[in-house]
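User: Predict structure, ligand iron/sulfur cluster.
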Amino acid sequence: MKFVDEYRDAELGRVLSGEIAAIVDPRRHYKIMEVCGGHTHAIYKYGIDDLLPANVELVHGPGCPVCVIPMGRVDDGIALAREPNVIFTCFGDMLRVPGSRETLLDAKAGGADVRMVYSPLDALRIARKEPDRQVVFFAIGFETTAPSTALTLKRAKAEGVENLSVMCSHVTIVPPLRALLESPDLRLDGFVGPGHVATVVGARPFEFIPAVYGKPVVISGFEPLDVLQSIHMILRQLAEGRCTVENQYTRVVPYEGNPRALEVLAEVFELRPHFEWRGLGFISQSALKLSDAYADLDAERRFSVPGVRVADPKACQCGEVLKGVIKPWECKVFGTACTPEHAIGTCMVSPEGACAAYYNYGRFARERVLS
Ligand code: SF4
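Assistant: Predicted complex:
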């Protein structure tokens, strides 16, 4: 298939693998974090780590939008879904994310009107069709998906649709990366940068990483050769004693981002003073809420939301996985009490979660043998 097969060419992969082997220093151990869950899945689906020298370790980062939603936020969503006359809409993967007692799917089975949508525009469509009901959209995701929520809110306002509101849980990528870089738990040598987020924000917001922390960043696409080439670019910077932001994903990411999307984000959203991330705790200015101009469409102002705070279950080590401190198979419940069918933590539920990647692509067995 044109435009896909070129990025999955096994021979080119072997050439890149040889070039990587030639530039690494065998006396050194390299730790490279791929920020996005999409990269984690590409790595394990295509066996990219098998093409790397043993001293190049890949560490999985916090860029999975479902994984970082805390339990209390899920409980808040369930409380809203149970409000009389409410139709609660969300993406499919949020349905199975565990709250403290149940999931949105359980709430639906118990009678709440919870509906899966593919886009916030579906929620707007439902609101138009059901003018006597209140339609709430549970908005999640990084800067990648926030523009679609913003444009939907703009359209709802323009059309005078008053029965739609948004429970905004959009997060931003730079603050958790800064928190990770400040963490004494983790020593990283470079970052495979988030290609989807960078499509919107550009590469410039990541310049603080080389400037302040002296680590290279390569914004990367999601096909196997994209990821392999990005790792090669990071290792080449390290070998040459350089650190800068490079853009491997030039076919999609403009260095300055998408100005129209950024303009819409600035109009519809503002930064929250702080937001709780699953396993990472509160991170200041790391999430979005609706700006005053859109306050009338804010579900958290329209309804009384409990604002629940719940500690993660003791067995759950999603926080350590999201920080790259442990590998998924090191969590005590991985593959036993926690599986995609019966997940304890979010990293196993989400199609972008690191635990789901390990589980689905057989890393459990392999890592256990190696350890
Ligand atoms: S195995 Fe389950 S509980 Fe453990 S870190 Fe992964 S998702 Fe969380």
